[in-house]
Design brief:
alpha+beta; two-stranded antiparallel sheet
Length: 103
């Protein structure tokens, strides 16, 4: 689990949140498909390099609704989305290594 310490805590439902816990390892294909559907309804394309996609995945991985995550201070927002991107890019890299070994 990845934890992002917020430089500026946010308040959600009366609770002060100073750390975002991203349980990216627990995500399933169904979670990714739901993120893709949600983005499509907003007219946004699913793209792992897009911050819209990354923050939507972060919402799934953290259990915090997207609207609340979008209220993060810009530096915390960038930190959260960067952690998601690093995770996704590392997964892509690992998959490429596995594919290359199979060939």
């Amino acid at each position: 689990m990845t934890e992002v310490k917020l430089s500026r805590p946010i308040e959600i439902d009366g609770n002060k949140i100073d750390t975002i816990k991203l349980d990216l390892e627990k995500l399933t294909g169904d979670d990714i498909l739901k993120v893709e559907r949600e983005l499509r309804l907003k007219g946004v394309s699913f793209n792992i390099l897009s911050q819209e996609t990354q923050i939507a995945i972060a919402a799934r991985a953290s259990g915090i609704i997207l609207d609340d995550l979008q209220k993060l201070h810009w530096s915390d927002f960038l930190d959260v989305t960067a952690q998601v991107q690093l995770f996704l890019m590392n997964m892509e890299s690992e998959e490429q290594k596995t594919s290359e070994k199979l060939q």
